[in-house]
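Late entry, evening session. Most of the bench is empty. Finally got around to the prediction I had been postponing all week. Sequence below, unchanged from the version circulated by S.P.
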Amino acid sequence: MHIKDQLDALIEELRFHDINEEILNAMKKIKRHLFVLIKYKYEAYENRALPLNHGSTISQPYTVGLMLQELELKKGLKVLEVGTGSGWNAALIGYLVGSKGSVYSTEVLPKIAEFAKENIKKNGIKNVRIFVCNVLKEPLFKDVKFDRIVVTAGAEEFPEELLKMLKNNGILLCPVGKETQEMIKVRKKNGKIIKKNLGEFIFVPLER
């Protein structure tokens, strides 16, 4: 099957699972096969995670779609992503927040970060910046507040330190657990933290 036909089939599958049209349009524009290892190019539109080098992965399209949807992204937002991976998720967020929005993405593995930077650059995306650091240990953004924060790896415990970086009325998404994780959505509202469980997922471990 041609790559375009594979993409169309994936879009229909995600639409069936109630991923909204704004997210689907972003996935049509920011094509997943341009963010995977070359040997997986013709598997890029299967609805499953794919391996990257160094033990990292690119997440399942449905999982990415659901997380993007639950982030309630809007034009002009400032977003922190913890775990860059291939850069596909950051690129999708960059597209959804528009030219007046910005994405700060952190990655602990330098070679994976370099892979993501190359992918972002060749796709012409201007509003995504990638940092090689462990944002949970290094005070890189201690004076920066974000509208949205998304963690793309499984944290054994909820990373409370990220709440300090979240603006009022902001949203944070993080998978929490060991072998499997529960996707926790946090909304900070008038100083209060409201948590919601979005269900069970499997991610690679978050390095702390």
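Two things to note before I forget:
The chain has a mean pLDDT of 94.
The chain is about 25% helix and 25% strand.
Will write this up properly tomorrow.
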